[in-house]
Amino acid sequence: MTKQGPRDVRMRGFDRRATVEQALAWLDAAVGELGAEHVSLDAAAGRILAETVNSPVDVPGFDRAMMDGFAVIAADTHGASIYNRLTLRVVGEVLPGRTFEGPVKSGQAVRIMTGAPVPEGTDAVLPAEQVDIDGVSVHVVDPVPQRKHIGPQGEDLRAGDRLLVRGRRLRPQDVGLLSSVGRGEVAVVRRPMVRIVVTGDELLPRGTAPQGSRIVDANGPMLEALVARDGGVVINPGIVPDTPEAIAAAMAEPVDVILVSGGSSVGQEDHAPGLLATLGELAIHGVAMRPSSPAGMGRIGDRLVFLLPGNPVSCLCAYDFFAGRAIRGRGGRDPSWPYRSRVLPLRRKLVSAVGRVDYARVVILDGGVEPIAVSGASLLSSTTQADGFVIVAADSEGFGPGETVDVMCYDR
Prior knowledge:
CATH superfamily of the largest domain: MoaB/Mog-like domain
Helix content: 10-25%
Radius of gyration: 32 Å
Low-confidence stretches: 1-12
Mean pLDDT: 91
Number of domains: 4
Shape: elongated
CATH class of the largest domain: Alpha Beta
CATH topology of the largest domain: Molybdenum Cofactor Biosythetic Enzyme, Chain A
CATH architecture of the largest domain: 3-Layer(aba) Sandwich
Strand content: 25-35%
Largest sheet: 6 strands, mixed
Distance between the termini: 34 Å
Structural class: alpha+beta
Number of helices: 7
């Protein structure tokens, strides 16, 4: 858990494995939220607000008509009925975005459209269906009370009202609200820059067909999608040669988070752990979990570095447990699991071993849960067939049929 020197751990196995709790404790202490940047409203949706925003103005900033009709003085309509029509003279018209010049006097009316500012001197809007129109005059057949059909100034917001609180993920309607009070830009938490370092001489780039003993990179595209989901900005120029020099150069890039996929274990060609220990701090290497036991993490300066196994399921698991949590936290997002959770009964036994955390892929059938695989870290198809996963704690031997489990659903 402390800084390690350039000790060569390759081909010697792990001296010990950290618990998931120890790894998360180090991670949560190391993750710090990034600073703020200002963006225009057209780029603000989905970003994390870095300031608390209060309204600088009343919205609306004037009394407005809530329906089409005539702006009148309410007292002029008192006593009106079908048998006692009261006549008012129409002296003008006001439309949305316009104002009526001059005060309205007793005995007068102004034609008004919904949303238009109520003319000075009037205190009610008489619906068109409550009058008979005769040229420049209206005959009132129904009285209207004071303030009827008028939306008051500040009905939506008052100057000084709290609009949005720091840490909120901005939704489209939030952006609209900010615009309504005159904001053209807003302070948001900077999105983490995430360098994906996929290494392995056996790998071919995406878009090519597997050839002989060489396989196509699956982790790079998967990690790109995961990072984008979690609010990071992806930097992935392609597969990095499996040499210490190339990997060290990639790990030295000026970003916020580095994800090294492959070369993270203790084999002869696993360069990343030793490089991290030499260039910075290898805080965790080896975690008591299945899959992903070779996972590691540390830092180089302000950069958080995650060593993700090359096997795709292990890579996904380690990302879910650790790297994704860090990326969300650095970007001001909720660091907890980004999956929808369902509590469901098991259809058959889910076996685990005491002393390690298991990430068990499951399917949901007829309202119950069935494990589909607890091994096979290279079988990425097992995650596409799965509806989600169940986390089995290190102190558990698993769950029996009929017991309820908490399923993290991949479909959110």
